[in-house]
Each structure stands twice: as C-alpha cells, then as structure tokens.
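User: quick one
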Amino acid sequence: MKLTKLPYLIAIDGPAGSGKGTIAKLISKKLDLNYLDSGAIYRIIALAATRENLRSEQAQELVSLVKKINMRFESEEIFLNEEVVTNEIRASEISQYSSEIAAHLPLRAEILSFQRAFYKGNGLVAEGRDMTTIVFPEADLKIYLDASPQERAKRRYKQLIVKGNNVNMSDLTSEIEARDKRDIERKVSPLKVADEAKILNTDDLTIDQTVNKILSFIT
Ligand code: C5P
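Assistant: Done. Structure below.
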C-alpha cells in the first residue's frame, strides 16, 4: 500500500493487552513507517529506577534519572544504556511500577521531545496511552484499540509465556485491571478516547483483520 501523503502519522492508544504493540508494529512495516512503543519508555525508566532503589513517588529523582540514562530501540531489541532489556522490562513488577511512575507530569514532560523525535522520515506509527491526545494531537489517523478484559488477559498471557516469562492467568488479570484503573483515573494524560479517534474493538477480529481495518481508514 502506498501513502498519498508523506510524512504520515498514525497514533494508537488503548488499554493493556489490547493488541496495540502487535498491530502498530505490523502497520509500520506495511507502510514503511517508524514505530514507537511508548510504553517501553516507561518500562525502561521503571527498570532503571528499581535498580537505583527509587520509590515511585520520588518524582524529582525519577526525572534526574531519566536525564542520566540512555534509552535506545534497535531493530527488535530495547536498550538501557548498553544493556539489552527487551524481556526484563516485561516483568510484572515492572508493569506495575511503570504505571505508577507514569502519573508524574514532570516525568512525562521530560520524555516528550524524545518521543516526538520518532516522527521523522516517512512518518510514524506510535502506540501507548496518550499518543492520540498529548504526544501527537496532530496525527493523521487516530485509533483507540480496545478488547474485553478477559480477552486482553488471555493475549498477554500467551505473549509472556512464549517469551519464557513465568506468569499465571489470575495474577495477570488483576495486574491488568489495576493498571487500567490507574491509567484511566490519573489526572495527567489519562487513557481516553480522543475526539477524532476511531474506536476498534478487537475481541472478534484476528490480527490481520484488525490491520486491514486500520489500513482501510487511510485514503
Ligand atoms: O504499553 P505498556 O503496557 O507497555 O505500558 C506500560 C505502562 O506505561 C502503562 O500501564 C502506562 O501506565 C504507561 N504508559 C503511559 N503512557 C504511554 C504508554 C505507557 O502512561 N503513552
């Protein structure tokens, strides 16, 4: 598929396990656009912070830490400084911790330009919680990807098991519920449906069907 307008910017938001990562990555490949997994940024910071024994309330210290570390995405790997942390940042404690620190406005402000810098070349597919509302309000296409809590927990479970993580379904369901609640209820950049966003419930859609549906919105 060829885009008629370049650069092109697609922003996708949605709750944990809604399929944003898989779908956004596939679309970026199909359209030859860059890809931003903004959740991974919060996860890298969370990992670095736990190693420094910071508590999630220590907003100023977290901001200082962000200034010090180097975060990098290279093909399929994610780096904290020179270390590959691709799998480690998916651990359950890191998921919870990342959603706690994500509530701090100064921290979010600190990483704003880093995220925006991914919009270059042919354009970008960015996914997270505030891509359609705060980071890329000018996006050409905004999608809110949703699925039922049961379906989302099932998908996350499969993903984590394949990657060798040790998880159980009921812990995972509670973790996802707690994170969703925190992400939706927080004052700063809460997860919400942007005015112009197209809402897609993917409960009964395959990955291919979801990708094709999103591509059909691009004219
Ligand atoms: O997308 P993922 O589940 O990896 O994100 C981890 C956490 O990072 C989320 O639960 C959310 O609290 C936070 N996050 C955010 N804004 C984004 C992406 C993620 O607050 N744009």
